[in-house]
Amino acid sequence: MEIKSGECHIWRFDSNEVTPDLINILSKEEKTRYLNYKYIKDKNRFLKSAAMLRILLSFYTGISLEKLIISRKCNECDRNHGKPILINCREINFSLSYSKNIVVIGIYKNFEIGVDIEWINNDFPCEEVIQSILSYEELKKHNALGTNEKLKNFYFNWTIKESLTKATGQGLNESFNNISIERDNNYESIQVVNYPGFNNDFHDISIKSMIFEENYMLSLAVFDSLKTIKFYNESDISKYTEFM
To answer: How many CA atoms lie within 13 A of 202 on its CB side?
Structure first.
């Protein structure tokens, strides 16, 4: 499958829709992880996301499923909890996120990408954790917002900072309240103004955030000039019967 420069592909899957034969797509390590999950909901979500990721990477690279090598090695401790990369085709970058039964996978060419999706829980006590998410300047602006806008602003900042740290591979090593984001009132013009863990020019980062399927917040960050986003779902690949 072709992906052009400056183009981001976002794939959406439902982890409630799982067939047992998907386990045959997993690597040996992934099969072990799948079997170690205790609850069926977690098993199905891992199975769906891991299998669909491998199918997509095979689509985009032309590499057969059994020859795909996905590394999750941490650069600091060598354990398998680092940023996943495709060893045998480094030009295809990807990021995966899930919330409830929705799984999203972002694909980008030649530059790092991070995606994050969160279900917007209207009862979540965001004010109890907001200081760990927002910088000092962001918090001052947040406190001036109305109640409904505060909830949206919380999920906006949370998902953007998750996507940023996924793209850099820093994850939880970077405190979110050290990162500062500026946006317009429509949540459309978004830019990073402070990110201690990022050594390059902030202008190299493209950020998008949106309400997804009415009650989810979806954000993505790419270290490139993002031109367009294309959305796909499972029906777009179901015709490839050799994988399904």
So the answer is: 12
Q: Are 49 and 96 in contact (CB under 8 A)?
A: yes
- Residue 171 CA from chain centroid, whole number: 11
| 215: its two tokens | 């009650």
Q: E strand or H helix at 108, and its extent?
A: strand 102-109
The torsion defined by the Cα of 82, 84, 90 and 91, in degrees rounded to 10, comes to -120
Three-class secondary structure of residue 232 per DSSP = strand
Residue-by-residue DSSP string for 149-209: HHHHHHHHHHHHHHHHHHHHT-GGGS-GGG-EEEE-TTS-SEEEEE-TT--S-GGG-EEEE
In degrees and rounded to multiples of 5, residue 41 shows phi and psi of -60, -45
Task: Give the Cα separation of 172 and 40 in Å (integer).
Answer: 27
At 128 the pLDDT is 94
Give the pLDDT band of residue 172 (cuts 50, 70, 90).
Answer: low
In angstroms, rounded to a whole number, what is the distance separating the alpha carbons of residues 121 and 170?
26
CB 10 within 8 A of CB 229: yes
How many angstroms separate the CA atoms of 53 and 140, rounded? 40
123-138 per-position pLDDT tens digit: 999 999 999 999 999 9
Mean pLDDT across the stretch 50-70? 95
Query: Between residues 204 and 35, which one has the greater pLDDT?
Result: 35
